[in-house]
Amino acid sequence: MTKLAPVLSAHWDEKDSFTLAGYKRHGGYTASAKALAMDPDAVIQLVKDSGLRGRGGAGFPTGMKWGFIPQGDNKDHYLVVNADESEPGTCKDTPLLMANPHVLIEGCIIACHAIRAKHAFIYIRGEVTHVVRRVNQAIEDAYAAGILGNGIDVVLHIGAGAYICGEETALLDSLEGFRGQPRLRPPFPAIAGLYARPTVVNNVESIASVPAIVNNGADWYQSMGTEKSKGTTLYSLS
Ligand SMILES: Cc1cc2nc3c(=O)[nH]c(=O)nc-3n(C[C@H](O)[C@H](O)[C@H](O)COP(=O)(O)O)c2cc1C
After folding, report:
1. For residue 2, is pLDDT > 90?
2. Which of 103, 115, 194, 228 would give a disulfide with 78, using CB separation of 3.0 to 4.6 Å?
3. Residues in contact with ligand 1 (CB, 6 Å cut-off)
4. Closest residue to atom 8 of ligand 1, CA basis
């Protein structure tokens, strides 16, 4: 693979890219099988070594964020995927979810394993009905195929459409059924997030980047990108 070859968007031009069959044709769900056979801490280390930084705006190192989740605490842990994408002019998570929702589901499985979580929540803003339908279908197909439901569940939550609900703690309030307003910190979500349990909140693209890292390795990911931000990213031109 050359450094200019697309990674996340590699097969978006195929008419069934969003289906389970279309995803599996290009190695879909081989990364989660590989990751589930690994020690969770080794998965976190791999993501740290890759240099992946969050694609939700602040660029926080993803592996480090996962490493903040306390281990052996006998509490439920949660993964929350931020698919609110309401920044004016921003349009990358929507096309990603339309073209390849399964890569996000696979990323959720890997991230849940790494942080010892059994539940992932995908928070999508309600206006993007086409995205909601597509992700919902992909989740149903993943359950029907036995990919989900074997220890890891994914719940789709439809937001009412408020820009502030893209902020991670407002999103958590909204997910809990309250009006979305940012919480005071500390405590940070890694300590007391969703339902006051240790929670990782990551952007769609961050989580969707993980399967390729598991399959191709940290060095491969490090070989792309800039000095301070490694790997690939999606750009929206508007
Ligand atoms: C007002 C506001 C709106 C935000 N909207 C989004 C959003 O739509 N999507 C997103 O992923 N992050 C958004 N963020 C950033 C999140 O709070 C959070 O940092 C991010 O989801 C973490 O994911 P990452 O580590 O994968 O980047 C927003 C932040 C603020 C302050």
Report:
1. no
2. 194
3. 54-58, 60, 65, 82, 84-87, 164, 166-168, 201-203, 206
4. 85
Helix (H, G, I), strand (E, B) or coil at 171: helix
Peptide bond into 70 cis (omega under 30): no
Angle between helices 129-144 and 101-115 (to 10 degrees): 60
> Is residue 15 assigned to a domain?
no
Q: Which of 231, 229, 209 is nearest to 219 (CA)?
A: 231
- Alpha-carbon distance of 226 to 229, in angstroms, equals 5
| Domain that residue 179 falls in | 40-222
- For residue 186, say if its preceding peptide bond is cis, omega within 30 degrees of 0: yes
Residue in the structure block whose two tokens are 């499985």? 109
CATH for 125: 3.40.50.11540
> What per-residue confidence (pLDDT) applies to 5?
77
Nearest to 180 by CA among 165, 192, 166: 165
pLDDT at 76 over 60: yes
State the distance from the centre of ligand 1 to the C-alpha of 57, rounded, in angstroms.
Answer: 6
| Domain-embedded: residue 3 | no
